[in-house]
Sequence to fold (123 residues):
Amino acid sequence: MTETQCVFITRDAAGQLQVTPDPNLHVLAQTAADGAFAPVRPDAVQGVQCWRDSIVPGPHDEEVVLALRVPLFIVEDATADPRIGELGTRDGRFRYEIIQGVLAGDEQSRIDARLAEFQARLR
Fold:
C-alpha cells in the first residue's frame, strides 16, 4: 500500500471546511513506527484525508482516530473516478463507510478483518 499525500481538514473562523497541508503528515509511515501517532494538531481539525492506492484502511489507521478524535478519510487515487472511505468510531466500535464509489471483489472482507484488528487492539 502506498500513500501519496495526507492533509488535515480544518474549519476556518467563518465555519468553512478547508484543507490544511502538512508536509510532515505521513499516516502510513507514522502509524507503523514505534511509539504513539502524535502529529502537531492544527486548531479546529475536523479530519485527516490521505490519498492512497487502496481504499482498504492501513494496518494502524485506527491510531489517527484515537489520537486526534476525528475521522480518517481515505481517497483511492489509483482510478479516474476516485473512491472515498471514512474511518471513525460510533458507540465505541470502529466503523468504515464508503462515501463515494462501491467496493469490489474481496474488499469488504478485507475491511471487516482490518476493523476487527482495530477493535481487538482497543481492548
The beta strands are 3-11, 17-21, 45-52, 72-76, 83-90, 93-100.
